[in-house]
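INPUT
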Amino acid sequence: MTQLPSEAGAQSQAGWLGTRLAAEMSALTLEKVRVIGPQNAERNRFRILAGKSVLALRSTPLIEGDTALVIAAGPSLHRRDVARLLKEMSFAGVVITTESALSYCVRHEIVPDLVVTLDSHADRIVRWFGDPNLTRERLDRDNYFSRQDMDPGFAGDELRFNQELLHLVDTYGPKIRIAVASSASEAVVDRVYAAGMEVYWWNPFYDDYERPDSLTRRLYELNGLPCLNAGGNVGSACWVIAHAVLRKKRIGLLGVDFSYYRDTPYERTQYYQELMHLVGRDRLDEVFIRVYNPHLGQEFYTDPAYLWYRDSFLEMVQEAPCETFNCTEGGILFGTGLTFTTLRSFLEREARRPETG
Amino acid sequence: MKEMLKGNYELPTKVTSAHDAPSLEEQFEREALKRLGGSVAFVSKRKFLWEGNDAATE
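OUTPUT
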């Protein structure tokens, strides 16, 4: 049975539990990744020691210019004709995508300058690159991709789509640089090397490196990599790399929704199964949080993790001496420190801007 | 439990209250909650890049 968010106001308790859980997300996430992330880093150690740090990107053409555009894989990316506009207006800055948006880009012949990958999950993240070991049995066990309101390409014939994506990523791979977190799984690391991508490594912050028992500090001592505050998710990590590594002064965001459209059934949200397991179907309205976007005059809804990503991003953006333009034209990321605008306005403004070094 | 065991003697075995350790239900709930988490922690600091020295950069 499909379940949509209840009508606004229908339940006075709507979203209360989700808001409380969002406040716990930082601690819960650390519990979730504090073992698997460093384990992956240990396993990746020899490749890291033989490879390049993310700071080596400063010695590439990516350091030129002041502008970057981050493309993440929020649902707005597929509801608007973003690719057509991007190609029509030929953005001259650096294009940075999450691994989850790579498929969208290469299917539309947009070759990103940099891809970023972060999550340590053992076998899901590699799907974004085309998984050479995908089987029908594995699809039957895990419907994570086909179930969600993400890239519609992943919702059809998954095995055929995977084969096409393997071919596309193998074709474009040698032209792509990728910033790989030390927490990345063996499957992802093997895949990006096999596709011929140029790999640049980094450590994500796990905790405050100034604490004497800091896990972040221990990782640094293990592999010597620079450590980045990734903001909880790969989309925010792209923005951090644009700002803190590539020193961009103006950063556009695309597909950074941190939320779902009102017509998306709960079943098609990322954490649906986990939330069902936790509270049951009858209480789902209590964990999903509605947010009205005044720039669009539209209401979206979100879950605890996405609300936490949004709040963390808004905290980070206020500390950064760069301008951030949210061109997503959907979602809940608005507030002090960033400009909510359209992709066309952002691209036109950048096209008019004189070249700077 | 501790209130009931006051005395001037040492018990041969350590007595722990059932309330000290999380119940099985609490453990299951915590495991379920962890699965809601993100890809990595967010650390509330002013700086985004740390290169191993004690002063962060950028």
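end of record. Chain A has a mean pLDDT of 94.
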